[in-house]
Amino acid sequence: METRKTGYMIRRIIVSFIRKYRWTPSCVAAVFMVTFAVSSYRRDARPIVVLSGIAFAAACYVWGYSVRALKSATWPSLDHLHRRQYTETWDTLASSPSQARAAACGKSDEGQLRFSAQRPVTNVTELAGIKATDNVLEIGCGVARIGLELAPRCQQWTGADISKNMLACAADRLVGLNNVHLVHLTAANLDAFSANSFDLAYSTNMFDHLDQMDRYKYILDAFRVLRPAGRLYVDNTDLESDAGWAGFANGVATAQPYERSPFQPSPTTAAELTAYAKRAGFVEVRTHHRSPLVIVTAIKPSVDQSFDGNSKSAGA
Ligand SMILES: C[S@@+](CC[C@H](N)C(=O)[O-])C[C@H]1O[C@@H](n2cnc3c(N)ncnc32)[C@H](O)[C@@H]1O
Predict the structure, then answer these.
(1) Residue 73 phi, psi dihedral angles, 5° rounding
(2) Closest Cα partner for 274 from 306, 214, 232?
């Protein structure tokens, strides 16, 4: 176990060094190539020639490996950040428009990004509904992957996010739409919005990255900012689906010795999300299983409850 831990530590030190100084593998390979060539040319002692040949081959292997690995490892290591350091984490992940698109849904290409929006857009429209008169809020809107598709179908679309870099990319993508509004959240709550101001509040592909208590806090806040009869939609990877379980089990099998990244998706169950929605005061709380997601929809009662009264029952 100790040996494994030491090996892991050494590997991490080498990897972070190479990430910082990307030119090192090629330079080391060049140095060993010259050493090998010179020792062969001078007909040095056989062990020296063999050793320099092995060193050259190993350096070439590390060089090739690092070129491949660095292609996908475009983000710096975030392991030092805590899960709740949402702003630092997501601003780093979204440090350029193309990285922002990739961090939002794994696709940096604009065409693929738009294609990837189809499924969540269908989920929101089928399960929560979008009306032309709706004032809509997305919590954790990212680069407005969903907003770009939904804004033309509603009266006003507001995207709220904790990352300014994500919002900058969203603003570029939404140019030309005049019913959109982007809001930077300075903390994991909806304090930026007045009570009773939206007809639909939804969050997709975001709860996976939150601490449990922040999931509940957003549902509680969504209750406050929704109008009476306003609709809620939230989704999260479903631990009880085969696909959701497979992702989780794969993480257990492969990521055990590693630090957990602060954005590591964390699956949930229908029970967790419905408990939050009911405790927050929502009615008609329904779960929908669309693998790998569990989706909860709910309605704020038409007869308004005061936020104070609701928060008391929530904490009870
Ligand atoms: C995986 S992206 C999904 C973005 C968008 N919902 C989509 O499906 O394209 C997660 C988004 O949630 C945002 N986010 C993460 N933690 C947050 C928090 N505590 N409050 C608000 N937004 C948050 C990130 O900045 C990022 O834009």
Answers:
(1) -85, 65
(2) 232
What does the alpha-carbon distance between residue 85 and residue 89 come to, in Å, rounded to a whole number?
6
Identify which of 91, 119, 136, 162 to mutate to test ligand 1's pocket (most ligand atoms within 8 A of the CB): 162
Contact 244, 208 (CB under 8 A): no
Q: Would the pTM count as exceeding 0.70?
A: yes
Give the Å distance between the CA of 12 and the centre of ligand 1.
Answer: 28
Which segments of the chain have a pLDDT < 70?
Answer: 1-13, 15-16, 19-20, 67-74, 304-316
The protein residue whose alpha carbon is closest to atom 6 in ligand 1 is 141
Question: How many angstroms does the Cα of residue 70 sit away from the middle of ligand 1?
Answer: 25
pLDDT digits (tens, 9 = 90+) for 235-265: 999 999 999 999 999 888 887 777 788 998 9
pLDDT digits (tens, 9 = 90+) for 260-280: 889 989 999 999 999 999 999
Ligand 1 contact via 148 beta carbon (within 6 Å): no
b/e for 31-63, b at 16 or more Cβ within 10 A? Answer: ebbebbeebeeeeeeeeebebbbebbeebbebb
| Residue 287 φ/ψ, nearest 5 degrees | -110, 145
182 Cβ below 6 A of ligand 1? no
